[in-house]
Design brief:
single chain, 11 helices, 12 strands
């Protein structure tokens, strides 16, 4: 299903509950009450929640949080910043499988596997709450609200994974990019940010690896959508100028066409916009 920029689908709305403000970014110690805030739950037992100590970890940009295939000691909940999740193909290439933001759970595949099935790396200065696997199940028994919040978060992430299958469908690159931008717009709206002005922490190369196209193709696709009047690109900021036109582009099963004058404008934009490699 193609995301709708004007009305997020019902399966996304389950996460739209207001989330409490995160702890100060310079604080490395917190409690289960902070975890519930990150997951969008108000909690029900403040005394018990504050009694469980939680550690936070800061990561500079381009720092790997965990590597694919390594033994897992914890899962992580994003507090600030953006992460990319990726796997290594048989030929050694990197395949991006998704991007994570505040409230997303990283490494949850380790709950059943005991190792991380994919890697996660910070795309910008970021921080996470660390939930040791050795403590997790005891915490869930003590705090039913935490168990419910974690189940809801994982259910939402599964729904987003299904949405990304549409992004990767065998359609022209411009259509894939339009679908990705709509998907990311909804992510921003849910977190209380503008759904029409997107600050992309990921590079165009990362986007290309998610969409399954060449890096240069993503650059041309941005230029094509800009030439159609759907958006404007300044560095890593994308302004959605015409949501309806972008939605039409996302629904198109064929390559988008522009008049020759617009194609010329697209070529000029491609050469003038800084590459986000």
């Amino acid at each position: 299903m193609t995301p709708n920029i004007e009305a997020p689908p019902d399966r996304v709305r389950i996460s739209a509950a207001p989330r409490t403000a995160p702890p100060p970014v310079d604080r490395l110690h917190g409690s289960a009450q902070d975890l519930l805030g990150l997951l969008g739950s108000p909690g029900h037992d403040p005394a018990r929640e504050r009694a469980i100590a939680v550690q936070f970890r800061r990561l500079p940009a381009r720092t790997v949080l965990f590597h694919e295939g390594t033994s897992a000691a914890a899962i992580h909940i994003v507090r600030t910043g953006t992460f990319k999740c990726y796997r290594t193909d048989a030929d050694g290439g990197e395949r991006v499988i998704g991007f994570a933001r505040r409230g997303d759970v990283l490494g949850y595949g380790a709950l059943s596997l005991g190792r991380y099935p994919s890697a996660a790396a910070a795309l910008e200065p970021s921080s996470v709450a660390v939930v040791p696997l050795a403590d997790l199940f005891a915490w869930l028994q003590r705090l039913p609200a935490l168990e419910r919040a974690l189940h809801q978060a994982l259910s939402l992430q599964h729904a987003r994974t299904e949405e990304l299958s549409d992004v990767r469908a065998v359609v022209p690159a411009e259509v894939r990019l339009a679908r990705f931008l709509l998907h990311w717009s909804h992510r921003m709206a849910i977190s209380g940010q503008s759904m029409h002005q997107l600050r992309l922490a990921m590079s165009r190369r990362d986007i290309a690896r998610l969409l399954g196209v060449a890096h240069e193709t993503v650059s041309r696709s941005f230029a094509s959508l800009a030439a159609r009047g759907c958006l404007a690109v300044t560095g890593r900021t994308v302004d959605i100028l015409d949501a309806a036109a972008l939605l039409d582009a996302a629904r198109s099963p064929i390559a988008l066409q522009q008049p020759s004058c617009k194609r010329d404008a697209a070529v000029k934009l491609l050469h003038c916009t800084p590459a986000l490699s």
